[in-house]
Amino acid sequence: MILIYYYMMAVCVAVIGKDNSPKYIKCLDENTALQFHYKVHTTIDIIEEKLNVGNKTASDVRELFLGLLFSAEDHKIFGYATNTKIKFVVILQSTNTLLRDNEVRTIFKKLHAAYANAVCNPFYVPGDQIKSKLFDLAVMEIMGII
């Protein structure tokens, strides 16, 4: 029951493709969706910078969780990048001070597993928008809608 409280703080979840085009964006409040789309797009540069720091060799083991990308007075933006350059962005409310990195990592692991299930569908065309009902349900659970 406590984990559901943490998930209720997610106000926006986004999946960005390896070509930096949005594949999926879901916002809690559709009236402020444009504001969150802007925040997601501005974090792409930060993610790219974190991924390219030092130009690591192929033998380096890279941490998928990128941590806190940006913090504003009302939201915290966290990032995660897969080995295939797919990026996940989750925007959380700043009012939850009890949220630790472990809980945020759990959110991203769940999102990554749902994404893997969605793209493994034989009817999914790689590079297209994600239109999976199961992926939608996983995202709504992270956002606390269901």
TrEMBL record:
UniProt keywords, alphabetically: ER-Golgi transport, Transport
GO cellular component terms attached to this protein's record: perinuclear region of cytoplasm
A GO BP annotation: endoplasmic reticulum to Golgi vesicle-mediated transport
Location of the protein in the cell: Cytoplasm, Perinuclear region
Cross-referenced Gene3D superfamilies: 3.30.450.70
Keyword Transport: yes
Family per record: Belongs to the TRAPP small subunits family. Sedlin subfamily.
Annotated protein name in UniProt: Trafficking protein particle complex subunit 2-like protein
UniProt source species: Cephus cinctus (Wheat stem sawfly)
